[in-house]
Design goal:
This protein has helices at 32-37, 167-170, 175-180, and strands at residues 2-7, 11-15, 19-21, 24-26, 46-53, 57-63, 71-77, 79-86, 88-89, 97-103, 109-112, 116-122, 126-133, 142-144, 184-185. The chain is mainly beta. It has a six-stranded antiparallel sheet with strand order 1-2-11-7-13-5, with no helix packed on it.
Length: 188
């Protein structure tokens, strides 16, 4: 496993060493010792998997307070545009976003630190996304920001897609509303 990208003061893109032959492939997707050597010391306690059809956009989500989460995100099948937004007040990249294309063939893994909003858009016919979390999900502590918030100005790859959002994601708060009462502080 190697880091092939660092951005937004803590997020990392990781590439596994994949062993392929005529039978298929093998790679180690997670090893606590290896991740610790790469500076990722989160203790993951929950695994989640979702399947979404083409055009589904999930996000931008986060957990607040005591339920704040870091995530390791990987696509098992399909192709997504993954987006993270730094919500840590005082961070040099506060309010900035990063888009990354992830697919089920490369095994790339995105480490999303605590204090970030996360979402993705499915670009293929469907996508199966797997992610580890370092804290348990609690619906009382969930939060989110609208995917199309004008102050974030995220250029989602929507051309040719029939966008599909959940009712919950359609009603998320604006980034300006979040700025009035930020919940994450950089370095804490």
């Amino acid at each position: 496993m190697e880091i092939i990208g660092k951005f937004l003061n803590g997020a990392k893109l990781l590439k596994p060493r994949i062993f392929k032959d005529a039978r298929g492939y093998f790679f180690e997707s997670y090893n606590q010792n290896t991740f610790s050597e790469l500076g990722i010391n989160a203790r993951f306690v929950q695994d989640n998997e979702s399947y979404s059809a083409r055009g589904v956009l999930r996000g931008l989500h986060f957990q607040k307070g005591a339920n704040c989460q870091a995530k390791l995100v990987r696509v098992l099948e399909g192709l997504i545009e993954d987006v993270i937004v730094d919500l840590r007040l005082g961070s040099p990249s506060f309010g900035h976003f990063k888009k990354i294309t992830l697919n089920g063939e490369e095994g790339l893994t995105l480490f999303v630190p605590r204090g970030f909003a996360h979402g993705f858009l499915v670009l293929s016919d469907g996508a199966k996304v797997f992610y580890k979390c370092d804290n348990f999900y609690n619906p009382s502590y969930e939060g989110g920001i609208k995917f199309d918030d004008p102050s974030l100005n995220i250029d989602w790859s929507l051309e040719g897609l029939n966008l599909s959002l959940s009712d919950k994601d359609s009603a998320l708060a604006s980034f300006e509303d979040y700025r009035k009462e930020p919940i994450f502080e950089y370095g804490k």
